[in-house]
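Risk register update: the risk of archive-format incompatibility is retired. Evidence:
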Amino acid sequence: MKTRQVIFCIILFSTIGCKKQVEKERPEFIGTWFSRYGSVEYAKIVIDENSNAHYIFMDYGDIKGEHRGTARANDRKLKIGRILSFDILEYPHKIDTTSTSILAPTDASLTVWKKANWRMTLSGLHPQLLYLNGTFTYYKVDY
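Archived output:
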């Protein structure tokens, strides 16, 4: 019985340790990320310097789903809290603002918009919006 508990703890700690909080190992995730799903639907991921994350999905200006938790990432997944998980298809990277005209909000309030200079592509299923499953590109402004 004791052997099972030790093996279980080793497996548990090894899987938990695979994803690091973003402020420690993956600071490129920190900021306000914005993705438009259609003409009136969009998602926003806000990750602060302490790895606190807030995911919001809005439709016609109304919040249809949101989730808060600690942001953790490795080379393959971005996880917010214990439930919300995305596959990373395109890791966050800088893009050329002279050849791109994508506008993104500069802060979480969505009041000031500029040309995006970061992009990442995520794939996943939102736990409260089960119909929303797919690949979406998120943009960020950091200047």
